[in-house]
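User: I'm new to structure prediction. If I give you an amino acid sequence, what do you actually give back? Let's try with this one:
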Amino acid sequence: LGVTYTSFPVYTVSGTKGNRLTGKACSIDGTPVTFCPDGLNKWVSTAILDERNAECFSEPVFDFMGAYLKNGEKDPRPVFSRGLERELWLCAENEVMVYNYRNGVFYSYGIEGIRSAAELDMELLLGKDDGGIYLFSEENADDDGKPIEAVITSPFLSFGTPFVAKNLDSLDVYTQNPEETEISFTLTRGNGSESHSPETVLTAEDV
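Assistant: Good question. You get back a string of structure tokens that encode the predicted 3D arrangement of the chain. For your 207 residues, that looks like this:
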């Protein structure tokens, strides 16, 4: 019968999905990831064969993605996935945005000028604009002598029917943070305004 090939056709319904940045598409956990006009999209396999397979997951870093999509076509900086660490790295001119797809969170490193990257013996090597090769290490416990500041942003939560006003009396968040680590919370309303941090944060000793 000859050679049999398996194909996965995709039929376009509209122009809202696709890949804005050619050469930067990648995959995480075997799922294709492309840069669509609305941000990073995962193409999930279903019985549907059009752009409805694409799911945007970069809402928490909307501002970063807007600038990245604007400059990405002319910026040769790499996009790559670290399988063992389960991280997707997006290298920009002045920072690196990382999507941890094990935990579903974004965080960034203030590393400038990355031109290339390679993993050797489970270590990450970074080539930079100055021609040097640097070893990325997570063993440092400070940022040039200052405490490391990390921000974790959740997706937008509608708490039910979207775009309907609701009264939120309390919110419980459970976290596990190492010793010598301070944690604070900020609630951002749907209109973009921020509230103050909670007046009371209970620790394990208080419960």
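You can read the tokens as a compact description of the fold. Here is one thing that stands out. The chain has a mean pLDDT of 77.
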